[in-house]
Fold this protein.
Amino acid sequence: MTATIIDGKAFAARVRDKVAAHVAQLKEAHGLTPGLAVVLVGEDPASQVYVRSKGKQTVEVGMASFEHRLEADTSEDALLALIDKLNADPQVHGILVQLPLPDHLDSDLVINRIDPAKDVDGFHISNVGLLGTGQKSMVPCTPLGCLMMLREHHGSLSGMSAVVVGRSNIVGKPMAQLLLGDSCTVTIAHSRTRDLAAVCRGADILVAAVGRPEMIPGDWVKPGATVIDVGINRIERDGKNRLVGDVDFDSAAAVAGAITPVPGGVGPMTIACLLANTLTAAARANGLPEPEGLTA
Ligand code: GUN
């Protein structure tokens, strides 16, 4: 069997088009421009690339982008004061503080200072609790993107066996909650899981989010399964720098029914879903209907 490739780049472009159409409609009908504030502390090179990309795509869909770049030695009080200001700003509907923060800043404290209604990352403890109890929340962008691709590929996920490898707060745990919400039978596996290969072989849906290059080989994949590879790992091979996922793509694609590539799979969906979440936050803040197909 050769797997269907789930094209995240094309999917993300469709999501952005939908968001742009909704934004145009909000402007036209309500004079409302959704706004996203992104806060970057320090000069982590990867974070700078992400933040630039987020700002560019925000503007491309017609939203307002507010970028706040702070020195690496910014005090916690100064960062909290900025968040308070953004919380109170009616032009800002979404706030994202780029992680990781420098070591002297307490990420939990900072994230939990964001107004939960503006927490477009879905990391605030209130949103985590709302998602865990099946209530309306802001949903973390990467798992939301994975869910959208799975729903489009399968229609209903009800009754499917889903294995999420990885237990991070950003991907693994919210992914498991979303799959449970769609009535999958969910297992969260991780580095300490006994006989991880056998656990993975039981999955109709296998989500890999461990951050270890090509850790999951094809013979851990059930024939016909759908494989969602969240990993983005930089490695050197044959003297060249390459991006690879957490799944060994060639061997997995030979047995899977469908698979996301790296690059061009889950990655592009993350920022597309950030834009979708900002739109959702703006609609909710103004008592307007939420855009269909862009939320969990
Ligand atoms: N750093 C890496 N991924 C993310 C993300 O999804 N949100 C934030 N805020 N920081 C990140």
Q: What stands out?
A: The chain has two domains: 30-115, 141-267. Residues 30-115 form a domain with the Rossmann fold fold (CATH 3.40.50.10860).
